[in-house]
Amino acid sequence: QVQLVESGGGLVQAGGSLRLSCAASGRTFSSYAMGWYRQAPGKEREFVAAIWRTGPSAYYADSVKGRFTISRDNAKNTVYLQMNDLKPEDTAVYYCAFSYVLTTSESGYDYWGQGTQVTVSS
Questions:
Q1: pLDDT tens digits, residue range 10-56?
Q2: 4, exposed or middle or buried, with CB in 10 Å at 0-12, 13-18, 19+?
Q3: What SS3 string covers 37-104?
Q4: Cβ atoms within 10 Å of 102's Cβ, excluding its own
Q5: Which secondary-structure segment (H or E) carries 33?
C-alpha cells in the first residue's frame, strides 16, 4: 500500500507560480515512477507530468511544456511540480499518483493522492 499526500495548492494570479509537493509513504519511493494529473470542473482528469525513479526522464503534457517542471527528492520521498506562468486554464484539482512503470496513461497508476486545489485568477 502507498499513501500520497499533496500540498501547496492555492489561489494565484495569472502569470504567477506555485510549487506542489506530494509526500509518499509505504513503498520504496525511489524505485517507482510518479505522476501528476489534474481535473478541472466538468472535465475529465488529464495527464500533466511524470518522472521516472531517478530522473531526469520525464514526460509533460503539451499544454504545460516549458512552464511546469516535475522533480523528485528520493531522500525525502517527495515529488514536486513547479508551475510557472500559470494561466486561468490551469485551474483544477491536482493529483499525484504512483506507478510501477513510467507512463502517461491514467490506468497505469495504482495509487492516488486526495488532490490539492489550484485556482488561477485572471
A1: 999 999 999 999 999 877 777 789 999 999 999 999 999 999 987 67
A2: buried
A3: EEECCCCCCEEEEEECCCCCCEEECCCCCCCEEEEEECCCCEEEEEECCCCHHHCEEEEEEEECCCCC
A4: 17
A5: strand 33-39
